[in-house]
Specification:
Growth Hormone, Chain: A; 17 helices; globular
Length: about 400
């Protein structure tokens, strides 16, 4: 039963990654073709993350009240209906609202599936399971831009194709038996927003460190996609070179996602996370020193992807290790919120670094951020774990 449930959830997340990976470049192209300014185009892309942040405080109550399956169905249906609605009215504000709704729907889907997987996964297999989950999303996200090429056949064909694939994956959820998260008998009003924020406070006091890798990965993923192309073009690389270098990072993450999760199961999440942040910091420092060499940058980005591409899934696993079960929904929400804040902050901070700091500054900015993260995690101890039942 666990195996069947796990692989259905993995398939759902793969299609979700595929849809998101398609939507980002597709919308950028469509808005560019309509003459929208690049600054507005970039701001428009934040709709997804704004949707995540707006929805986060309201997710835990419905999950506890109705269970995992209804929230996955609601999230999936929101994404499907939003995706198929893009062709109805090609308006900038309408499309932004649809992206916001997709952010809400995707967050409901991911929050439910992540929490469900962390709940039923045995501790010795948790890192592996979440790595497979992360790999599934990553591969889907990487394949997504290929789906966007259908725009050359018909402008709206990618939207219809994504909606159809999402509908097929969504239908698998009906084969699953619903479950609800564990909760404390002593907690009466556990469905309210006030109660959710109370659990957020508990998560921060018990397990603030597991949020940091997800926050850092948000900075890393968004700034590499948004800032590095600007930095690369400014130091003389062409577009093909820049995209190859960035792709090397994500390919490295896909290649080493599962091995790193298995290693974390065997030697511990904290040791692995501190080690990969420190090593990643040195790799980006090395990349900054030799930033004039495209070949060395490709190698550095591939190695850094191998080290850091599992940050989000390991963050989820570490959060699960550090909390009692009744706090897992709130803990998973905090990991997602951390990632979203990092995704919004990363391009802004990276842009400031490119604008105001000396040559090769962007890569040094990443190196310093990773170094600070690893030092912060040294001070974290799970001494409170298990005290709150």
């Amino acid at each position: 039963m666990n195996s069947k449930r796990f692989w259905i959830l993995v398939i759902i997340v793969f299609i979700s990654g595929l849809s998101q990976g398609m939507l980002l470049p597709l919308m950028a192209v469509l808005l560019e073709q309509r003459g929208i300014a690049s600054s507005i185009n970039g701001l428009h892309a934040t709709g997804l993350y704004i949707g995540v942040l707006l929805a986060s405080p309201f997710m835990e109550g419905p999950l506890r009240k109705f269970g995992y399956k209804p929230l996955i169905l609601a999230g999936g249906m929101t994404v499907i209906l939003s995706m198929v609605s893009f062709p109805l009215w090609p308006n900038l504000l309408f499309w932004f609202l649809l992206r916001l709704l997709i952010g809400v729907g995707d967050h409901a889907l991911h929050f439910s599936t992540q929490t469900w997987i962390t709940t039923f996964s045995e501790e010795e297999k948790r890192g592996r399971n979440l790595s497979i989950y992360g790999l599934s999303y990553g591969v889907g996200f990487a394949v997504g831009p290929l789906l966007a090429r259908l725009v050359t056949i018909h402008e709206y064909l990618p939207f219809y194709t994504s909606s159809f694939l999402s509908l097929i994956a969504w239908s698998f959820v009906f084969f699953l038996k619903n479950e609800k998260p564990a909760q404390r008998e002593s907690e009466i009003d556990f469905y309210s927003i006030k109660s959710t924020f109370g659990r957020f406070s508990q998560v921060l006091s018990l397990a603030w460190a597991p949020i940091l890798p997800a926050f850092c990965y948000g900075i890393l993923e968004a700034s590499l996609n948004s800032n590095f192309p600007v930095f690369g073009l400014r130091i003389g690389f062409d577009v093909n070179t820049v995209t190859t270098i960035v792709s090397a990072f994500f390919i490295g993450g896909i290649v080493f996602q599962i091995p790193l999760g298995i290693i974390s199961d065997r030697i511990g999440r904290k040791k692995v996370l501190i080690a990969v942040q420190l090593l990643g910091s040195f790799v980006f420092l090395f990349a900054g020193i030799f930033s004039a060499s495209p070949l060395l940058l490709i190698v550095c980005f591939f190695v850094s992807g191998m080290l850091l591409g599992s940050n989000f899934s390991l963050s989820m696993a570490y959060m699960t290790d550090s909390l009692p079960k009744y706090l897992l929904p709130a803990g998973n929400l905090m990991v997602g919120i951390g990632f979203s804040f990092g995704s919004i902050l990363g391009p802004f901070a990276g842009g400031l670094a490119i604008e105001y700091l000396p040559s090769a500054n962007f890569l040094y900015f990443i190196a310093i951020s990773l170094g600070i993260l690893s030092l912060s995690m040294f001070s974290y101890s799970k001494s409170h774990h298990g005290q709150v039942k």
